[in-house]
Amino acid sequence: METERKRWPSFFFRWEFMLVVVLALMCAVFKRQDAARLAAGLSKRNVFTLATVIRGLRPYMLYSFMTLGVMLILAMGDIDISTGATAALSAAMLGISYQWFTAGNMRPGTALSLSIVLCLMTGGICGMFNGVLVTKFHELFPMIITLSTQLFYRGIAFLLLGGGTLTFKNDATFDSLKNLYNTVQIGEVSFPVMLIWFLAMAAIYGVWLHLTAGGRRVFALGSNPAATLYSGVRTGRIKFWLFTLCGLMSSVTAVFFIGATSSSIRADAMNGYELYAIAAAVLGGFSTSGGKGSVAGVILSLIIFGVMKIGLGTLYGFADSMVNLSVGVILILSTLLPNIAGITGAALRVRRHRARRAMESRR
């Protein structure tokens, strides 16, 4: 009983609990504004309901799969800013390969399946290339390496597409990818297909990262790389495969993005998605210092981003630039508050220690 009593206060100071509180406060504010609009005759019906919010999360779930890859890189204390370019190159490869296969009289269904496989392989290869550079050239920061590969991958995408837009009009087989952007009716709520896929993948990542020895090695690498290396863990191999996995998740994002954009593919697609993915992972509790974070926090942060954009854009009429400003403010606060709390806690512990030593010296 005494142990349980000690655990309860620490639970309320967990970062995930703070995110739940933030989400609840946001929903309360937006719900009140929705009721005020209805009472003032500015709206004919409530627009901020559970059904509308869940259905409206679709546009903001596009970078969710990429976020799962980015959080692994942050967990081990590195960063990857080439994920958006990797996704664009993977999407370009999917479109180009489908065009090649169908031009060779291959059946459209087979051509699409092989194209998706090549898309996923492209993301994995890009991630492998990042992993090789990071593990072999220790004198270079991962940010510099992935900045260079970002430009490289985006340039290859422009070469493949020629700077134009690749579309497949009146192609029923390729248009089947649009089903990934549809919703599934569960009771009275329409759940986005992307949300279901994301939650399933997040559950797998959560079990692996928090409940297995492999996941504990990732956090150990982020907390103390030298101690992890000298304890016998092959840190280079872990980095290599995590960067590979991050690239693979970027290509998964590419597949869902094509389904969401009416089958149009451009080389500048998903530009800036890496920043949203990093922001969602950081708000979820991960950081470049490594060794901390949780999958539950990432899920909550993505929902917070979606709810914020829906509420500010629909109820308050804010432009996208103002919504992005609000996201930036929350991200800054989420970075500063834990540091301020840590500094304050350390100062209080030092103060209590000095007071205790002063009392002992008087005795």
Q: C-alpha Rg, in Å?
A: 23 Å
Total strands: the figure is 4
CATH architecture of the largest domain: Orthogonal Bundle
Give the low-pLDDT segments. Answer: 1-6
Shape verdict: globular
Q: Major sheet: size, sense and barrel closure? A: 2 strands, antiparallel
CATH topology of the largest domain: ABC transporter involved in vitamin B12 uptake, BtuC
- Average per-residue pLDDT, rounded, comes to 85
The helicity comes to: over 70%
Number of domains: 2
**Main β-sheet, spatial strand arrangement:** 1-4
N-to-C SSE series? HHHHHHHEEEHHHHEHHH
Number of helices: 14
Any overview of this molecule?
There is one protein chain. The protein is mostly helical. It folds into two domains: 304 residues, ABC transporter involved in vitamin B12 uptake, BtuC, CATH 1.10.3470; 33 residues. 72% of the residues lie in helices and 4% in strands. The protein contains 14 helices and four strands. A two-stranded antiparallel ribbon has the order 1-4. A hairpin with a 2-residue loop joins strand 2 and strand 3. The N terminus is likely disordered.
Question: What is this entry, summarized?
Answer:
This protein is mainly α. The protein has 2 domains: 15-318, Orthogonal Bundle (ABC transporter involved in vitamin B12 uptake, BtuC); 331-363.
